[in-house]
Design a protein that fits this description.
CATH architecture of the largest domain: 3-Layer(aba) Sandwich
Strand order of the largest sheet: 2-1-3-4-5-11
Number of strands: 12
CATH topology of the largest domain: Rossmann fold
Strand content: 15-25%
Largest sheet: 6 strands, parallel
CATH superfamily of the largest domain: Response regulator
Radius of gyration: 25 Å
Structural class: alpha/beta
Number of domains: 3
Distance between the termini: 50 Å
Shape: elongated
Number of helices: 13
Helix content: 40-55%
Length: 342
Amino acid sequence: MARAKISDVAKQAGLSISTVNRVLNEPEKVREETIKAVLQAAEAVGFYGLGTIKSQINTWRPKLRFGFLLLQPTRTFYKMLGAALQAAAEKVEGQRIEVSIIYAEDLSPESLANHLITLGENCDAIGVVAPVHPLITQAVEALAQRNIPVFALITQLSATGSVNYVGFDNWKVGRTAAWVFHKFTKGVGKIGILVGNHRFRCQEMNEAGFRSYFREYAPDTQVLEAISTFETASVAEEMTEKLIHQHSDLSALYVAGGGISGALRALRSTGKAGHVHCIGYQMMESTRQGLLDGSLTLAISYQLEAFAEVTITGMINAQKAGKDATPQTHILPFEIYSRENI
């Protein structure tokens, strides 16, 4: 079979040979729809210069640089989120998006604020998971003055909506968890709460919504004071064991922040798996196994592909709008997984 030529590509696309040549040599002078038509035609006829066309398209597309500051590199959820954000950026048509991700090991406000400023030196927009703290707020405001939009991911950085946000309505998440426990435990036994850090607004709202449900529908239920895990699985394991030893009538555990894998280990090691109902976050290997073996009752989860697409699209729109951009709030639906629907 004869090797496909430019004339074959032009015929397949219904275009002139000169137009195909412009796509090959001057793509910036051709409409995006025409470039796509030539690319599809080249693939259809097996054009030998297909690689050249793709390379030219990638070179021509405008480039944006998006930075992301996520939490510890050892945490599965944030590695999954990082991969989803990278994949969503690669899918964007008409623009090249370069993604830079920092997984912060040190979660102190000083360290996180410094990371934000560092990302701002080379990025057109930034997404961040961070606690509410004056140093974080100061860094976000400094970036805003340089027209670098910041998106709070998972946890809001502003109660007034002045900072872009992508995530759950965490009040509803907390009330949903409480509703489940109310139906499962029938008001018998104490309920424990683990949070990573109350400066994460999402966790504060999770707990507030959780407690508000019981105040409204089951005021006699004893919900214990929340215990911090410092976003660490080993601390969550230790605190779960402590709760079990101190409260023989513990009936449920709400893991409203980081550390679910540690909490599940403690439930198994103490023989309480399946006896103490447990709700945690995100569908990943540790929570999937917990659902299967009964140590986890429900997992409340993001659909990460949708989360990443909304985030990338929002950042593109904010960057294009420049100083005229208004803060965006994207409230995403949450998925609920049990042993029976994984």
